Amino acid sequence: MSTAFAAATDDALLAAPRTELAARIARLTPADGMHETALAPLQLLRASSTTQCAPAVYDPAICVVAQGRKHVLLDGERYVYDALHYLVVSVTLPVVGQVIDASPEKPYLCLRLSVNPQDIGALMLETDSRTGPGTGIDRGLYSARSTAPLLDAVLRLMRLLDTPQDAPVLAPLAIREIYYRVLIGELGHRLRELATADSRAERIHRAIRVLRTRYSEALRVDELADAACMSASALHHHFKAVTAMSPLQYQKQLRLHEARRLMLSLGLEANAAAHRVGYESASQFSREYKRLFGAPPRQEIDRLRGGELAA
């Protein structure tokens, strides 16, 4: 069987599940934006038009698109996920995202399932590994081709939103199966590496946890290296392999994103937000904010509040 014929056959098998998944997401997302569900790890996203490139922080998750298309840029690398591909984020990453295929008639529809490395590790202990280990250390983000078994598990999870009395018992089973399908998929070794105790990816995850909890502090690379049980040079090399940036660049982006959240959600002025996240110089904060978000703080926040950068 030729590769092209096999791909066409797979696409045909996915057509019906995609159609049902899109209908269910559309029904539960009456407006654009991110929508929480009764199942805590599950969120739904709708966008009725294409969007501008927008910086964001992605937490570990599996993202499955039912309709439309989006891409994510990480250090110039482009990851596309659409109705034929899912996205996996295995570590917290500052990225740039853009919806590139959406319209009012056919909006971009996506579900996001949070991933906990501890849950992945527990599942690994109960199952046999079906794919070999990866070579070296990989990016903490990748896209892979969707499969019929994966979409079937996703649909069973979505259907539970209609029968909340069944969710406490059946939702954990559906979520575990989704994790399992990703783990045995073509790039599952990347997720497995993160959940393997003392692997290089897991050590980088430790350093990321330190940066996330202490982003406003003046941290030295040596401190992060100690947390990861690596030398400073090894940490720098492997951290960049996973996140596409150095630890200090990563910390800077976390600070800027948190300052943005403080201004947008709590109404803080730029100087107060800058101080809260660890900046001593307001002018340096403004310069770096504009470099990342494309406009000075006040102007960019006003634009967000006006809805110009809808999700």
From TrEMBL:
Any GO MF annotation of the entry: sequence-specific DNA binding
Listed Gene3D superfamilies: Homeodomain-like
Coiled-coil ranges (or none): none
UniProt entry tagged with the keyword Transcription: yes
Pfam entry (one): AraC_N
Keywords linked to the UniProt accession: Transcription, Transcription regulation
Span of domain HTH araC/xylS-type: 205-303
PANTHER family found in the cross-reference section: ARAC-FAMILY TRANSCRIPTIONAL REGULATOR, TRANSCRIPTIONAL REGULATORY PROTEIN
Annotated protein name in UniProt: AraC family transcriptional regulator
Organism annotation: Solimonas terrae
